[in-house]
Amino acid sequence: QVQLVESGGGLAQAGGSLRLSCAVPGLFSSYAMGWFRQAPGKEREFVASITWNTGMTYYTDDVKGRFTISRDKVDETVYLQMNSLKPEDTAIYYCARDRTSYFKSRASRDRDDYDFWGQGTQVTVSS
Q1: What pLDDT, in 10s, does the model give residues 46-70?
Q2: Torsion sign over Cα 21, 97, 47, 53
Q3: How far apart are CA 12 and CA 28, in angstroms?
Q4: Do the strands 32-38 and 67-72 form a parallel or antiparallel pair, or are they unpaired?
């Protein structure tokens, strides 16, 4: 069974950086990929997404200018570079496939359009 695997989470101080990685199976090429996060007691929310072929990116306003999503087609990996971290970024971060995006030049922000969720990786930012 296909499963996405996230890595790179951990503990960081406010203002610090972390880079998350998500290994993407080759059969997911031509789909957009997204990062979501879920803080304790809150709904899982969209963070960023990227189209696989064109690299077009989308961000939630909270992370614009601080986070960067990218993909490496050779290594089949999606990254989330997180800079200027804030305590409110503390959450479990998940990557997933946008099942509605096959060969389309756009990526969804809607959680319901995503599948093959990974186990998640914990990010904790201390003040």
Answers
A1: 999 999 888 999 999 999 999 999 9
A2: positive
A3: 31
A4: unpaired
